[in-house]
UniProtKB/TrEMBL annotation:
Keyword field contains Calcium: no
InterPro entries hit by this protein: Aminoglycoside_PTrfase, Kinase-like_dom_sf, Methylthioribose_kinase
Highest taxon, organism lineage: Bacteria
UniProt lineage: Bacteria, Pseudomonadati, Pseudomonadota, Gammaproteobacteria, Enterobacterales
Organism annotation: Rahnella inusitata
EC numbers, comma separated: 2.7.1.100
EC main group: transferase
UniProt name for this protein: Methylthioribose kinase
Gene encoding the protein: mtnK
Entry's family note: Belongs to the methylthioribose kinase family.
Length: 399
């Protein structure tokens, strides 16, 4: 019989007292439910002085924004906790610390990050964290290399692929990225003013072929243990610090998916800035986003190559020059998945504040059109974009 029950605030406080690892557990007295996503309850546990000490996160058995008509497996909580634990093993400085987790209750206790801010919120306000892009590149390189065939032996990796099979959450990604935006689906969220552009996008044969190819690779490439949803809303930043959270979409997939998602979200901010801040601030911010894209990819690719040279365990994959060839494939995937992220966040179910927070209707529509057009062009021309400098030149051309 399942032990699962949905936590109240009082339940979260008691659980934190047991498993939060604080020196004075009885000082934990209140909980605020702060979850703003679609899949979980998130409680900030405070002490008698009102200070937040730990986070208690529990998976719900359904999609929150839809309700019980869209049920979900609770095993995703185990997958999230174990993904974060593995990622934390290889990149502890940039992964939220899991203090405890219980698979049956679908609950985990995490370190409190109250001294950090959600990166997306800061970007929307025009704030800049100079080390964030390179730190995210470091996180991606460490976690993706160490869970790939370059580092893991074949038997271990095959077992890990099975352990992190995540069919229901992958189905959400497959639908929201590769299916829903390209058909008339009730889950989509399309501003009526964009209907001409959306209709043309759905009838674009080269784009539909690019989508098919990206989806096929997502379905079939088990290259590394992905975070699976690494966007600016699942990253906390502070001065000189960055932490990845929310890894319930973790599974073994194509390595390019994670950096593609991350770069796509930087470009969503790039597209939205003219409607979010003043003209001069928008121009400066856009230049900074392009620098962030460059720094993220170079940090990731250079560290991945260094790790491949120093730590590859498979003698065939350690052949000098092979990691460079492999990263070219990853790069093409990255550009394609980046384009898919731009499109799905503009007309699909899960919009982002980088666009939706624009108050002027006409300006918001213009920024949305830019995101759609940029995503479309990047997906179609991904094979022609050889490196990050070419990507930046192409973005400038398309802007």
């Amino acid at each position: 019989m399942s032990r699962y029950y949905t936590f109240t605030a009082a339940d979260a406080v008691e659980y934190a007292r047991q498993f939060g690892g604080v020196a004075d557990p009885q000082s934990l007295v209140t909980a605020d439910e702060i979850g703003d996503g679609n899949l979980n309850l998130v409680f900030k546990i405070r002490d008698s002085a009102g200070k937040s000490r730990v986070i208690v996160k529990q998976a719900l058995p359904y999609v929150r924004c839809v309700g019980e008509s869209w049920p979900l497996t609770l095993d995703r909580a185990r997958i999230e906790a174990e993904t974060l634990i593995i990622h934390g093993k290889y990149c502890p400085q940039h992964t939220v610390t899991v203090l405890h987790h219980d698979a049956e209750l679908a609950v985990m206790v995490q370190e409190d990050l109250s001294d950090h801010q959600i990166w997306r919120s800061e970007l929307v306000q025009g704030k800049y964290f100079p080390q964030a892009a390179s730190q995210l590149g470091e996180y991606l390189a460490q976690t993706l290399f160490h869970t790939s065939d370059f580092y893991q032996n074949a038997q271990t990796k095959k077992a890990e692929v099975s352990r992190f099979t995540n069919p229901e959450l992958c189905q959400i990604t497959e639908d929201l990225f590769f299916t829903d935006p390209y058909v008339d689906h009730e889950r989509n969220n399309v501003d009526p003013v964009l209907l001409p552009e959306v209709t043309a996008l759905r009838e674009d044969k080269p784009l539909r072929l690019a989508v098919a190819s990206l989806k096929h690779r997502f379905l079939s490439k088990a290259e590394a243990l992905l975070h699976g949803d690494i966007h600016s809303g699942s990253i906390f930043v502070a001065e000189g610090k960055l932490k990845a959270i929310d890894a319930e979409f973790g599974y073994y997939g194509p390595i390019g998916f994670d950096p593609g998602s991350a770069i796509g979200n930087l470009l969503l901010n790039y597209c939205g800035l003219p409607g979010l801040v003043g003209v001069r601030e928008a121009a400066d911010g856009r230049e900074q986003r392009l620098k962030d894209v460059r720094e993220l990819w170079l940090s990731f690719s250079e560290r991945f190559l260094q790790l491949a040279r120093e730590k590859s365990q498979d003698p065939a994959l350690a052949e000098p020059g092979y990691a460079e060839i492999f990263l070219q494939e990853v790069w093409r995937d990255t550009v394609g998945y980046c384009g898919a992220e731009l499109i799905r966040r503009t007309i699909g179910l899960a919009h982002v504040a980088d666009l939706d927070a624009i108050k002027d209707d006409a300006m918001r529509a213009d920024c949305q059109r830019h995101a759609l057009s940029l995503g479309q062009k990047l997906m179609i021309t991904a094979s022609q974009i050889d490196d990050v400098e070419s990507l930046i030149a192409r973005i400038r051309q398309f802007s």
